[in-house]
Amino acid sequence: CGKSFSQAANLTAHKRVHTGERPFTCPVCSRRFSQSSSLVTHRRTHTNERPYQCNHCDKKFTDSSTLTKHLRTHTGQKPYCCDVCFMRFTQSGNLHRHMKTHKSL
């Protein structure tokens, strides 16, 4: 695909995007993952471990990226911007869904 990586381990992990290889298996439910870090995060769903806590409220999360998204509900930060109408969004998925409204134009 042309992507380059400075570390061999990152290239190996990226290749799994193309091959569909999922070598990391959850011992509890047998769900498979392409990256070991994804398995670590997933295993927290079985233990209910939530090490990432919001400093504005009592909510806790299994991973830092979900906490980051949640924090935007407190800060009002909307880092994703539509390049057609300049409407802003807190999450990239919301922007992608919004972009479909411009397809008919």
Automatic annotation (TrEMBL):
It comes from the Eukaryota. SUPFAM superfamilies: beta-beta-alpha zinc fingers (SSF57667). The keyword Transcription regulation applies. Its main location: nucleus. It is found in: Nucleus. InterPro entries: Znf_C2H2_sf, Znf_C2H2_type. GO terms for biological process: negative regulation of transcription by RNA polymerase II. Residues 1-23, 24-51, 52-79, 80-105 form the C2H2-type domain. GO terms for molecular function: DNA-binding transcription factor activity, RNA polymerase II-specific; RNA polymerase II cis-regulatory region sequence-specific DNA binding; zinc ion binding. PANTHER family: C2H2-TYPE DOMAIN-CONTAINING PROTEIN, KRUEPPEL-LIKE TRANSCRIPTION FACTOR. Belongs to the krueppel C2H2-type zinc-finger protein family. This is Protein krueppel.
